Amino acid sequence: MTTLPTWSEGHLCRLKQPTDCPSCGEVLRGNRLQEAPVSLPSPFTDGHKSSCCLLVAPAHNNPGREFDGTSDLHTGISNTKGVVYNYTRGGVLRDQSGWERCVSVPLVRPDMFHLLAQWDQYLDHFSDGSMWDPAWHRFDEEHQNCFTYCLHFINSVLATEGRSSLSRETFTHSFILPRMRRVSKYTTLYDHIQRHQYYMVDRQEDRQEDKQTCLSDITVTAL
After folding, report:
1. For 33-53, how does the pLDDT look when each residue is reduced to its tens digit (9 = 90+)?
2. What is the pLDDT of residues 73-83, one digit of tens each?
3. Helix, strand, coil shares of the chain as percentages rounded to 5?
4. Which end of the chain, C or N, has fewer beta carbons within 10 A?
């Protein structure tokens, strides 16, 4: 699932240019579609091409590896080369594949050269710590899991930079949830168009949703 091309006239979205309006039946051929085509960018990225990011992907126990809103998710941190460090029951893995379709949260601004230069060293040193060694600490679904690992690493870097730490709630609401809402809206739209060939958008409702989420969406860099 990549960029979703749509045709829009007021409130109609389709994967292909329509010949007539499915709502009122009016012939659209020859009419000027002021907003067509509109490209809706995919919320998914290749984690191995996204350096210094927190990554969210469907867990391996999710049979279809889909973001369906009900299945478990898995998180990891990418280094500058796209290797994804992620904590599991067996300790910290360093994956060079398997994260090709995920949601990414950039953690470092491109102009923070001093941090970019040390990122891989920080990540390796942190991941080799005894806290993530299964011989010393057991993986726990509630208190010692993949997200715990990611948040602890982010806070360790923030401490090194002289910054205040982030709570689980703050990080989730500021950085994770806005992106997951975008994923939900995108997949809902895509699935509906696949089944019905078009989607009728309530423009007033859509604008109201944008107002509600825009303050969270503008915050994209944690460090």
Report:
1. 555 555 677 889 999 999 999
2. 899 999 999 99
3. 35, 20, 45
4. N
Q: 208 in helix, strand or coil? A: helix
Strand-pairing partners, residue 4, are 40
| DSSP β-bridge partners for residue 40 | 4
What tokens were used for 202?
């309530």
CA distance 52 to 107: 6
- CA dihedral sign, ordered 111, 112, 114, 115: negative
Residues in CB range of 3: below 8 A, 6 or more apart = 39, 40, 41, 42
140 burial (CB, 10 Å; 0-12 / 13-18 / 19+) is exposed
How does residue 104 score in pLDDT terms, banded at 50, 70 and 90?
very high
Q: Does pLDDT of 29 surpass 80?
A: no
**What is the DSSP secondary-structure string of 17-81?**
--SB-TTT--B-TTS--TT-SEEE--S-B-GGG--SEEEEEE-TT-TT----SSS-EEEEEE-TT
Structure tokens at 77: 């941190």
CA dist., res. 64 & res. 194, Å (int): 18
Q: What is the DSSP letter of 10?
A: S
Query: What's the whole-number average pLDDT of the chain?
Result: 78
Question: What are the angstrom distances between the C-alpha of 49 and each of 114, 123, 179, 185?
Answer: 21, 17, 18, 24
